[in-house]
Design brief:
By secondary structure, the protein is an alpha+beta fold. The protein has five helices and seven strands; from the N terminus they run βαααβββαβαββ. β4, α4 and β5 form a beta-alpha-beta unit. The chain is globular.
């Protein structure tokens, strides 16, 4: 069985590890913005962000994680979604993604925003399944970012 929980410091390193493994595995390196996110987790939480974890109830291991954080006004970003490869295909990524969406909406989001990479076909499918629409940007912020999505609440 799986449960979804809000941020617990004992899973902090899993958040960093899952995201690092995923980013490096897909793109070869972390960017400055990734490191800043990992270094400022507690401050982001104080500023209104939330990180969700899907936890295997039998082993108490983290299965997946996803962060949401306020950007400006009523716009929130969904970011830093990663999973434990051992639990791939068990719905953990989808569960934390949905929890992060709901948290943002519950905390006043009228627009949800995400950056991604168009080569990540399963991720693209998940975003579209949840009603996200592609938008064009002048600046994609990350070197690996080549596609952006929004969801209007």
């Amino acid at each position: 069985m799986m449960k979804v929980i809000e941020y617990d410091p004992k899973y902090r390193q899993d958040f960093i590890d899952f995201n690092t493994e995923w980013i490096v595995g897909n793109f070869g390196f972390l960017e400055k913005e990734d490191l800043e996110t990992f270094e400022t987790i507690e401050q982001s939480l104080k500023d209104g962000a939330m990180i969700y974890f899907a936890i295997d109830e039998d082993t108490q291991e983290a299965m997946a994680t996803c962060m949401t954080k306020p950007m400006d006004g009523t716009c929130w970003e969904l970011c830093k979604m990663g999973a434990n490869e051992k639990y791939k295909g068990r719905g953990a990524g989808n569960a934390v993604f949905e929890a992060a969406i709901q948290y943002a909406i519950d905390h006043g989001a009228k627009r949800l925003f995400m950056l991604s990479n168009s080569s990540l076909k399963p991720a693209m499918h998940m975003y579209e399944t949840h009603g996200f629409q592609e938008i064009k940007l002048d600046n994609y912020e990350y070197e690996r970012g080549d596609i952006a999505f929004e969801y209007i609440v």
